[in-house]
Amino acid sequence: MEVEFDVKITPGALYDYMLFHTYTSASGLIGSAVGALLVVGFFMGAGVIFLIAGAVILAYLPWTLFIKSRQQYLANPAFKNSLHYKMTEEGVEVSQGEEVQSQKWEDMYKAVSTPRSLILYTSPVNASVFPRKDLGEKTVGVIRIISAHMPPKKVKIRQ
């Protein structure tokens, strides 16, 4: 089984990845919980400062990730052109122009999904992002090959 496809990394795709990565980490969850508790504190009779602080905390992270995704897109020349992926029995190969990199399935960290993307982590902090709009009808094939070559505990993909 082999699947080939091209993806174009956009600021929106980067933002989707950053939101997922941040809000599934301890710091993202703690920040959200603190912000929500401050807002709840306001509604339980605490001062308006609780509402302001909670709103700032809840809005800060998504806003900074939005800005960061735009900056990262503009700063990385690799995002200007499409990336070509080839998933084989051995692993995943990504190419752009003359440059080719590959990674074996056993070296993959985990695979997850968001409503907008499939994300294949190559390490705890690095990942390949596959926007669903770019995958189109190949989405099912990509999910199948990932699921066939990675242990089930590492795959958290919803169709």
Automatic annotation (TrEMBL):
Looking at the record's lineage, which domain of life comes first? Bacteria
Task: Name the residues that span the membrane.
Answer: 28-61
Instruction: Tell me which residues make up the YcxB-like C-terminal domain.
Output: 88-135
The record, for Pfam families, names:
YcxB (PF14317)
Keywords in alphabetical order, please: Membrane, Transmembrane, Transmembrane helix
Could you tell me what this protein is called? Answer: YcxB family protein
Source species of the chain:
Parablautia intestinalis
